[in-house]
Every structure is written in structure tokens, then in C-alpha cells.
């Protein structure tokens, strides 16, 4: 049961345009959401997060939007740069057994074309 | 450089064998997580340790075990290896291990079972 879904395995965007990466979840108990970026041959690195009590969080070129009613979140990158080309993982966290457990999606590979 | 180290980088072994993957967390981080990433799959959470004690368990097979030592480094033991165990294994660490904790990932160990 994939509780966190990234339905687009890949995305290509022109440099300077907006990149929108989407993520859907099924567990209404998730209370914290994160995005990680992964370059080849490296581990994922944290990018941005959002609490379930918010609907938007912005950090420079990166903005995450959360629509709780739709159980959907998205990551916007504006403007997109070639260095943003990477795999982006959506992750969601919920309390389970007294502790917080994080569930990752399958990732979306973003290619920013110069 | 996340500050999390993993050894070895690559490991090639045969079915039925046993291997040990090692992880050293960032200085000061008390929590260690292990993840498995198979081809075209997301990051599957395996297990989390906090200050030497198991905190959360994910989809970890009975053939797999882990521990965190007093110096906070962790080892993941994989036994009776099968072809399907071939994957990237990531270790991550965080300060405490809550949902708001950013996890810092190591570069991963690529395991190939022949």
C-alpha cells in the first residue's frame, strides 16, 4: 500500500520556467510533509517542509503547497535552473506507535533543459 | 557532504551470503535510520534507532537486523541474501528523530547479489 504517491516518474522543463512536482497521499494522519532532492551517486538532501497546519511554505525559489482536503501537495520551483535537475522525493510523517514515522514516495526525476 | 558516512560504497556478493553495512551519523545526531531503494522504487523505510534503542520498524525482513552501538554508529546486517535484496541502502541521521527533524543522508551502499 503506497501511502505517498508521486505519479509522474519524470518531468522536463525549460530553464527559467516553473517546475511543478506533485505528490498525493492517502493517510489522513500525516501531519508533516517534506521534500528531498537527490543527485546521482549521492544521498537525498532535505529541501523544504510544511506542517499540516499550513497551506504554503516558501524558501527562495522553492514553494510547497498543501491541500489537505485533496490530500495533495506540490513543490514549485521558480525559476527552474539546470542545477535543479535531480530526483525529488516527497515524504510524509505520522505518529505511529508513539513515534513519528516517515514514508517516502517513489520520486520524480526532474530535467531542466538549458 | 552531509556528515553521514557509509561503508562500503559498493558490495558484490552471492546468494545465501551475509553482509554488514556500516553507518556513522553526523556528530551530535542521536537517531539513525536505514532505508532501502530498489530499482524504480522509492525509499523504503527499514528501521530507526535512537540513542542505542530501536524506535521504529518499517518493512524490514526477518533476515535483516540492525543495531546502534554506544558510539552511535549503526550496522545493518543482511543474511541469507537473495537476488531481490540487490538495492541501494541508505543510512540517515537526525538530532532527535521526530517528524520535524531533517534527516541527513549518507551516500549509500550499493549491494549487488549475484
Describe the structure.
The complex is a heterodimer of chains A (114) and B (114). Chain A is mainly β and 114 residues long. Chain A is 0% helix and 59% strand. In chain A, strands 2, 4, 5, 9, 10 and 11 form a 6-stranded mixed beta sheet that branches. The mean pLDDT of chain A is 92. The radius of gyration of chain B is 13 Å and the shape is globular. In chain B, strands 2, 4, 5, 6, 9, 10 and 11 form a 7-stranded mixed beta sheet that branches. A 4-stranded antiparallel beta sheet of chain B has the order 1-3-8-7, with no helix packed on it. In chain B, 0% of the residues lie in helices and 50% in strands. Chain B is mainly β and 114 residues long. The mean pLDDT of chain B is 92. At the A-B interface, strand 4, strand 5, strand 9 and strand 10 of A face strand 5 and strand 10 of B.
The number of strands of chain A is: 11
Strand fraction of chain A equals over 45%
Low-confidence stretches of chain B: none
Please mark out the parts of chain A with pLDDT under 50 across 5 or more consecutive residues, or reply none: none
- State the share of residues found in helices of chain B, binned by percent: under 10%
- The N- to C-terminal Cα distance of chain B equals 31 Å
Helicity range of the residues of chain A? under 10%
Protein structure class of chain B: mainly beta
The largest β sheet of chain B comes out as: 7 strands, mixed
Major β-sheet of chain A, in short?
6 strands, mixed
The best one-word shape of chain A is globular
Beta strands of chain B, count: 11
Amino acid at each position: 500500500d503506497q501511502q505517498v504517491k508521486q505519479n509522474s516518474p519524470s518531468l522536463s522543463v525549460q530553464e527559467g520556467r516553473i517546475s511543478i512536482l506533485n505528490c498525493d497521499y492517502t493517510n489522513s494522519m500525516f501531519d508533516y510533509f517534506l521534500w528531498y532532492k537527490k543527485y546521482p551517486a549521492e544521498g537525498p538532501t532535505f529541501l523544504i517542509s510544511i506542517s499540516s497546519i499550513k497551506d504554503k511554505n516558501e524558501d527562495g525559489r522553492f514553494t510547497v503547497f498543501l491541500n489537505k482536503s485533496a490530500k495533495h501537495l506540490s513543490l514549485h520551483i521558480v525559476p527552474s535552473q539546470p542545477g535543479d535537475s535531480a530526483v525529488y522525493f516527497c515524504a510524509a510523517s505520522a505518529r505511529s506507535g508513539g513515534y513519528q514515522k516517515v514514508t517516502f514516495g517513489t520520486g520524480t526525476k526532474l530535467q531542466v533543459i538549458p | 557532504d552531509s556528515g553521514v558516512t557509509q561503508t562500503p560504497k559498493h558490495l558484490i556478493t552471492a546468494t545465501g551470503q551475509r553482509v554488514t553495512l556500516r553507518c556513522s551519523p553526523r556528530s551530535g545526531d542521536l537517531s539513525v535510520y536505514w532505508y532501502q531503494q530498489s530499482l524504480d522504487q522509492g525509499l523504503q523505510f527499514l528501521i530507526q534507532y535512537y540513542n542505542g534503542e530501536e524506535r521504529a520498524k518499517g518493512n524490514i525482513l526477518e533476515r535483516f537486523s540492525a543495531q546502534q552501538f554506544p558510539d552511535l554508529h549503526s550496522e545493518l546486517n543482511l543474511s541469507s541474501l537473495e537476488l531481490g535484496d540487490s538495492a541501494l541502502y541508505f543510512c540517515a541521521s537526525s538530532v532527535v528523530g521526530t517528524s520535524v527533524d531533517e534527516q541527513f543522508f549518507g551516500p549509500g551502499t550499493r549491494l549487488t547479489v549475484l
